[in-house]
Structure to design on (209 residues):
């Protein structure tokens, strides 16, 4: 399946300007996945190319075992932050289309706002109003390997989709991070905007790139 290239860098900068895309190397990353009612760790692991057992190891405080996950919480899901089109850091996943699937469902529900409808339209050639059954949809999840000009104390970053209940204060308190540090990693971003995403540095992890 082909997807459009060339202007991908410019499009993704317009969608998310939190960290200037610089693709020098790959690194480990985490995706903050909002657990919606009806899903489970097996489903999340399948679409994010990992396993339910692996997800549990990253969320021991909130997920005691693979059979026990509450909807309405977030779980951190590990993935490899690589280079897409040599332009920006991200990972390309694949969604197997089922009858009735739409880009809106894929982005906002199945991938829990870790991608956007605009990205799905850009990296796929399907008619948004008629996605073929059993097709494979390219799903891009943005990520970062850090910014040494901000700090060299962090090496594992979380791609964190913003929700209406989020704010700079609430995220800083939950993650036990300084508000100024969060803002420096996400310059110009309003943490209370209720959409889009930010990058959250993982505490106590070595800088990777």
């Amino acid at each position: 399946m082909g997807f459009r290239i060339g202007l991908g860098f410019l499009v993704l900068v317009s969608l998310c300007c939190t960290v200037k895309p610089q693709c020098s190397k790959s690194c480990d990353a985490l995706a903050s996945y909002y657990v919606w009612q009806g899903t489970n760790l097996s489903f999340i692991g399948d679409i994010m190319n990992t396993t339910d057992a692996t997800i549990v190891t990253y969320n021991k405080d909130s997920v005691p075992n693979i059979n026990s996950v509450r909807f309405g919480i977030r779980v951190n899901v590990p993935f490899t932050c690589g280079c897409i089109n040599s332009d920006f850091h991200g990972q390309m996943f694949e969604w197997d289309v089922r009858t009735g699937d739409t880009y809106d469902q894929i982005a906002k529900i199945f991938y829990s706002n870790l991608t956007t409808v605009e990205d799905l339209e850009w990296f796929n050639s399907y008619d948004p109003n008629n996605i073929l059954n059993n097709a494979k949809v390219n799903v891009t999840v943005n990520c970062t390997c850090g910014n040494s000009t901000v700090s060299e104390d962090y090496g594992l970053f979380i791609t964190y989709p913003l929700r209406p209940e989020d704010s700079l204060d609430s995220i800083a308190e939950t993650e036990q991070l300084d508000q100024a540090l969060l803002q420096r990693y996400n310059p110009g971003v309003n943490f209370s905007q209720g959409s889009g995403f930010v990058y959250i540095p993982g505490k106590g992890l070595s800088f990777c790139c």
User: Anything to note?
Assistant: The chain has two domains: 26-67+82-142, 157-201.
